TrEMBL record:
PANTHER family, A to Z: BIFUNCTIONAL UDP-N-ACETYLGLUCOSAMINE 2-EPIMERASE_N-ACETYLMANNOSAMINE KINASE, ROK (REPRESSOR, ORF, KINASE) FAMILY
Lineage: Bacteria, Bacillati, Bacillota, Bacilli, Bacillales
Protein function: Transcriptional repressor of xylose-utilizing enzymes.
Annotated Pfam families: ROK
UniProt keywords, alphabetically: Carbohydrate metabolism, Xylose metabolism
InterPro entries: ATPase_NBD, ROK, ROK_cs, WH-like_DNA-bd_sf, WH_DNA-bd_sf
The protein's name in its UniProt record: Xylose repressor
SUPFAM superfamilies named among the record's database cross-references: Actin-like ATPase domain, Winged helix' DNA-binding domain
Organism, scientific name: Cohnella abietis
Family, similarity comment: Belongs to the ROK (NagC/XylR) family.
Amino acid sequence: MTIEKPIYLQKIKQDNMSVILQQIWEHEGISRVELVTLTKLTSGTVTNLTQELIQLGLIREFATSSSAIGRKRVKLKYNTDQFMIIGIDISRTSYELILTDLAGQVINSVEGNTIGIHQPEKILDLIAPLIQNMITYASSKGMPVIGLGVSIPGPIDRKSGQLLTPPNFPGWENFPITSTLEKRFGLRVFIEDDARASALAERWYGLGRNVQNSLFITMGMGIGGGVISRGELVEGANGLYGQVGHITLIPNGLLCACGNRGCWETVGSIPGILRRWSVGDSIDDFFHAVHQEDPHAVQCLKDTLSDLESALTTLFNTYDPEIIVLGGRLYPYLAMYMDDIRSHVKDRIYSFVRDRLRIENATFGSSQNAKGAVALVFERLLTAPLQMLTTDNAKEK
Ligand SMILES: [Zn+2]
């Protein structure tokens, strides 16, 4: 009991800090009085915890003048230039690394391809010096890197920090990426599958910043998703919540890597569209044929868009989000059809929500995954600031 009590109190303290940090992030500048009202914490607790957060370097005071009487008011906001975060996106054929401040502003970035490299160790050997350069640069600016976020094709095991059996990603099965990077750099490492990382990018830095319920869908070589409910990315019993690519669209259709038949991914992903077209193996060529008004390509596109509308309608009815965000490598090709897609989906949902639902495109383009990797670390900082800033050992997270 004498041991448990301080740990318990420490947890309450950290949870209260987290509530305060989330409010400061949402409001981009807030007074202590407003914090007391919004968090329902006592003014003494808000005073003490904000003071400690200032000492940790995470937030700072700034003065605003109240318009009517010109009186100065003290507000709190993030010290975004005190720490840095590195976001690492490893895809099946490329990588992207970004060094950002706490607000996700990119300070440095580097990308390259990994075509033909199938051993994880070789890919990490390739990017390790680049990561080290970023860590050294951040130190030279007096803004230490507080963690590495990794976006990678799933499924992954978050507890053990390793990949499970990602399809079309040979050599990565059961690879312990988290511990490998932790050992190499002595920093905390967090991994998330690319679709869910992309959802976090929107949650913290993009369209979902002030939205409690959102659905992110990424369309590319596969179709993935991430569901944010009450501000949190939902995991589900097996970390498979929001695997939107595996809803059945074609009864008794093609066998999918997940074991089901006729998943949306089998017809709506880039390989799915090319299989349906069955004329070439390049998505650029497919859309070129569409723009040349080749009747077969046009019909394939119509079927693809119809599937997308059916999927969006089903997913809206399943998750009831305020906003659906679409991204991924395929999205730029579909962007020009979005007005029609929006209107068709809205025709198929309850009339009283038609004007409320927003269907938007992802904020960060081809850097969505890397930004999501950064958001993963930022979210951890908001959830567990004491652990992130006051303990050195990466294993203690
Ligand atoms: Zn499937």
